[in-house]
Task: inverse folding
């Protein structure tokens, strides 16, 4: 809004003053959005853009962070060559993928039917049960992993104690007696078991989150559809597979996407369950854990930067393929 | 007997109905026990010491070591220092993010300006980037600008959470009438004044959601503190609990007590406001 086109007779001096304050005002007016955006611009510039550019530079160098920036040395593509031929990198990538499958698939196979049962209850019961199921999601992964680490303990853990009880019980002995031959099981000590242990904790923590998403999804399906299906003689199972599941597709797609992203970043659970990567780490270490080890235990920042970029490519390709194959169908053809 | 009378049919239906109900509740309640058990078990373990814990065989009785475990806990770590550090990181980070995210969300919702689309694109890209990939550059920057071993380094980068900015933007678009902004402008209020005294009060539900998300995230965060905080007087509680795992003859009872206390603040908040927390923490996933 300008005042210069006002027709009042005014002196030249007044006009000049007004012009000045106008210019000031338009300056503030024009830059206002940027003042409001400045926290994002400054912080994202510092912690987002600059470092990513610097990481490209770093991946062609060796750098020990303890020795300071002056020790940086140009090594060309050596970091990439080393990382690409590093068997541990591919092993940890494979571990990450397997644990994503072991924890991800059961998560959704359990959450879907449970959510379907939940929506058939009254709102009060549903609320209480949902509150219970969601509890693990609110608590810290470290705390949960510590609790499970104790539960998985070889000699005194409740899981082995319960299995021993089953194997020696008079009623259950015939079915579980064979367990005596393999007890005590080193859930977090053995490379053969660690993936299952980690996956179980991940499954336990996130199943409630998926239940909530699916409950919300099921609540969007109108009762009339189910009623029409009942009239047509569809039983409970058919109503689940023919009505609920197809209409839930966008929700399933979304929840599965979140599971995949979450699993790519899996760090805390395997870190605690392998006792800080000290035991069963061959099969239990994820790609994030390995990156941490290279950068902060071996202090090889250059290689770690190269691994980050390789990982970025791998994730990019997988994400692209995933959206290519499932994206359109998952979102219901939109 | 080939045909059933109506009465028989009805009673049979009733039996099936009751059976179905019983199975439904069995499934749902088994899942509850399965979910809650580890928490109760950690509390139970907090009352035992190594000798009673390591007795073979299932032992579900309460021990008498609770007080002793508390003293052991204080022996092995500065437990309350860790709790206080976690609290101050979570609180400062949450308050700052409420300010920054609402400023940016307001700007994106209300103003048309050059570079808006670029900023939008950057936010979406940064949301898709796995955090682990930015961990090394994050650490380098922290080191370079001299923020290593400070709490600021742990919460500042998360104060511009793009999810939060989008959330607030949606709230501004949905719940701040354009006329109101026009009226404030006509009354001569500056843009900042409008934001502070007209827009912010209207955003309360959105800010509450964002506060929940940020506080829970910062309280539970482990990776960034692990990398940045090195001295024991700065460490947050997740870090302290984890680091005791390496101690030989770990006093597990004491550690379980510490773990249980560390999750209590969030659990207590959750018990009183579970509806808001569930909808807040899934608000990125579920539109409601």
Result:
């Amino acid at each position: 809004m300008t005042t210069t086109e006002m027709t009042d007779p005014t002196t030249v001096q007044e006009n000049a003053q007004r012009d000045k304050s106008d210019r000031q005002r338009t300056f503030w007016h024009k830059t206002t959005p940027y003042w409001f955006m400045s926290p994002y611009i400054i912080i994202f510039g510092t912690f987002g853009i600059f470092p990513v550019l610097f990481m490209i530079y770093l991946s062609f160098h060796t750098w020990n962070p303890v020795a300071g920036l002056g020790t940086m040395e140009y090594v060309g593509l050596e970091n990439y060559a080393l990382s690409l031929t590093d068997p541990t990198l591919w092993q940890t990538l494979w571990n990450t993928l397997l644990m994503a499958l072991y924890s991800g698939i059961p998560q959704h196979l359990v959450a879907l039917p449970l959510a379907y049962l939940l929506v058939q209850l009254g709102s009060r019961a549903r609320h209480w049960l949902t509150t219970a199921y969601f509890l693990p999601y609110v608590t810290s992964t470290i705390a949960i992993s510590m609790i499970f680490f104790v539960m998985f303990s070889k000699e005194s853990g409740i899981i082995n104690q319960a299995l021993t009880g089953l194997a020696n019980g008079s009623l259950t002995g015939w079915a579980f007696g064979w367990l005596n031959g393999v007890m005590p099981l080193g859930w977090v000590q053995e490379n053969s078991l660690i993936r299952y242990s980690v996956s179980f904790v991940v499954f336990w923590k996130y199943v409630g989150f998926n239940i909530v998403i699916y409950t919300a999804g099921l609540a969007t399906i109108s009762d009339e559809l189910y009623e029409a299906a009942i009239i047509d003689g569809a039983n409970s199972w058919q109503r689940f597979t023919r009505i609920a599941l197809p209409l839930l597709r966008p929700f399933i797609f979304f929840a599965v996407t979140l599971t995949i992203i979450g699993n790519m970043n899996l760090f805390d659970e395997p870190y605690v369950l392998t006792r800080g990567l000290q035991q069963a780490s061959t099969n239990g270490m994820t790609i994030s854990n390995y990156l941490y080890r290279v950068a902060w235990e071996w202090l090889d920042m250059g290689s770690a930067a190269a691994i980050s970029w390789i990982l970025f490519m791998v994730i990019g390709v997988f994400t692209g393929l995933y959206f290519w194959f499932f994206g359109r169908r998952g979102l219901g053809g939109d | 007997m080939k045909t059933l009378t109506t009465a028989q049919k009805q009673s049979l239906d009733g039996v099936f109905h009751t059976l179905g109900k019983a199975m439904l509740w069995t499934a749902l309640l088994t899942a509850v026990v399965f979910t809650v058990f580890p928490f109760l078990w950690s509390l139970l373990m907090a009352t035992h010491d190594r000798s009673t814990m390591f007795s073979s065989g299932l032992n579900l009785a309460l021990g008498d070591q609770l007080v002793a475990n508390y003293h052991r806990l204080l022996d092995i770590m500065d437990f309350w220092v860790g709790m206080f550090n976690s609290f101050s990181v979570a609180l400062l980070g949450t308050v700052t993010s409420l300010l920054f995210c609402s400023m940016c969300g307001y700007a994106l919702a209300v103003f048309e300006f050059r570079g808006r689309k670029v900023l939008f694109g950057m936010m979406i890209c940064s949301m898709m980037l796995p955090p682990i990939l930015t961990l090394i550059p994050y650490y380098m920057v922290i080191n370079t600008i001299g923020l290593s071993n400070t709490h600021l380094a742990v919460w500042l980068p998360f104060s511009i959470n793009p999810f939060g900015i989008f959330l607030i933007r949606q709230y501004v678009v949905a719940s701040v009438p354009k006329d109101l902004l026009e009226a404030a402008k006509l009354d001569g209020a500056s843009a900042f004044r409008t934001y502070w005294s007209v827009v912010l009060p209207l955003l309360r539900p959105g800010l509450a959601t964002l506060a929940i998300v940020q506080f829970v995230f910062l309280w539970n965060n482990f990776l960034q503190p692990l990398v940045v905080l090195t001295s024991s007087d700065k460490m947050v509680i997740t870090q302290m609990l984890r680091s005791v795992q390496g101690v030989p003859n770990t006093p597990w009872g004491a550690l379980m007590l510490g773990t249980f206390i560390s999750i209590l603040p969030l659990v207590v908040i959750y018990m009183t406001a579970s509806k808001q927390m569930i909808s807040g923490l899934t608000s990125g996933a579920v539109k409601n």
About this structure: The mean pLDDT of chain B is 85. Chain B touches chain A through 90 residues (CB under 8 Å). The radius of gyration of chain B is 26 Å. Residues 6-45 of chain B form the longest helix (40 residues).
